[in-house]
Amino acid sequence: MRPLTGRVQHYAWGSTDAIPQILGIPADGTPWAEYWLGAHASAPSILDAPSDLAGSGTVLDEYLAGHSQEIGEASCRTFGPRLPYLVKILSAGHSLSLQAHPSRAQAEAGFAAENAAGVPLDDAGRLFRDDWPKPEMIVALTDFDALAGFRDPAISLEMISAVGPMPTVEAVLEPLHDADPRIGLATVIRDCLTGSDRVRQALAELLDAARAVVARGGADRSDPAGEIARTAIELDADHPADPSILAALLMNRVLLHPGQQINQPAGTIHAYLRGTGIEIMANSDNVLRGGLTIKHIDIDQLLEIADLQPREIVPADPEPLGEGIAVYRTRYPEFRLWRVTPAGPSGERGTSPVELPATDLGRIILVTSGTLICRCDQRELEVAPGQAAWLAAGETVQVRATEPVLAFLAAPGV
Fold first, then answer.
1. What's the pLDDT tens digit per position in 90-142?
2. What was the pLDDT predicted at 348?
3. Are 132 and 237 in contact (CB under 8 A)?
4. Residue 13 pLDDT more than 70?
């Protein structure tokens, strides 16, 4: 049970104030997009030295390489001596790129092929930087807007037609009438990501119609035309005249309220738009981008791994497990996440200490509000807002609070 300090990522799409506020440090005007907690080789967290030892700590991935028993037997048996998950605070002030992540088989094949071709790991055009999948989940801390997966094309056609008569848009979207929605979506997505003159003309036509909808007060989320118009204008503000906006308008727009989650299986094209949340994922850096970005994209490879089966995306609440503990259910073996809300001084949620789950696995606990008091054997560790701790496999940890606390506990999902 030792303090853990994460690493900040200043990506351009990040908000400027949310993460500094959680960490309890002054904002500096730069974008703070993500705060990483884990053992990813590109930005491993710092594990503080025990108080009875000299030194300022060590990076977590190096430490676990020599202390793999702290990850847990079940995890090491499944994944080897590597922490299989990565936890982040994510705060989007602007929309992220359209992206998808590979399955384990796709990642292994793609990584091996690029290695055989001699593509350097740090090459800007490299698609597979490791041989791991990257399923992920986002839990909202604030209202959180996202695009995830594709609607039934018939519904998208109806929503877009409600914006107004747009003959060029209708021509671009004509393949969506195909009997197989996946074929229609693949055709339109390829066309939009390629960015032909016709697609750019269609986007300009749609943006003009969208502005007219907003001008007459029709940007309400519950109105189909309003949702399309608002999304198009917001994406154009972040990525002016990007033809991939048309593809994004075929996706489900999902609003998460604080505490709710959505998760992204392999192949799900998605883009986070606005908001702050806790993200957990497999410990991988494999991202295949398809639009809303200036970074390298590979349309063929994206469509090769993409899951284009239309489906509705519904935010989910955590499942209570007992006093102060609720779990976010997913089927991914690389990670699991719990919400931890022990009692404050008024005793609204009981007064007994709460024992954290997954004692046989290596865990990271992150506090986002309040101060959590962690106890293991005869040792206590206070974890304040924005602070985190590494809890080794085999450590039975009880937590309590003297004020209302919100914390998140991560572990392997095995």
1. 999 999 999 999 999 999 999 999 999 999 998 999 999 999 999 999 999 99
2. 52
3. no
4. yes
Predicted confidence at residue 56, as pLDDT, reads 64
Task: Provide the H-helix boundaries in 117-166.
Answer: 153-161
Please report, to the nearest 10 degrees, the dihedral formed by the alpha carbons of residues 271, 273, 275, 277 taken in order: 0
Q: Which element (helix H / strand E) includes 136?
A: strand 136-140
3-state class of 279 per DSSP? Answer: strand
Q: How confident is residue 51, by pLDDT bands cut at 50, 70 and 90? A: very low
- Rounded to two decimals, the pTM is 0.94
Asked if domains 2-146+257-297 and 319-411 share a fold, the reply is: yes
* Token pair 């602007």 in the structure block, residue: 94
| CATH architecture of structural domain 319-411 | Sandwich (2.60)
Burial of 153 (0-12, 13-18, 19+ CB in 10 A): buried
Contacts of 213 (CB under 8 A, 6+ apart): 163, 164, 219, 225, 226, 229
CATH fold of 2-146+257-297, please?
Jelly Rolls (2.60.120)
Q: Could you tell me which of 101, 145, 96 has the C-alpha nearest to residue 283?
A: 101
Give CA–CA dist 87/90, Å, rounded.
9
Measure CA of the first residue to CA of the last residue in the chain; give whole Å.
21
Specify whether the CB–CB gap between 163 and 228 falls below 8 A. yes
DSSP output for 358-369: -TTS-EEEEEEE
Mean pLDDT of 227-234: 96
Nearest residue to 19 (alpha-carbon basis) of 1, 2, 34, 38: 34
Q: What are the domain boundaries of the chain?
A: 2-146+257-297, 152-249, 319-411
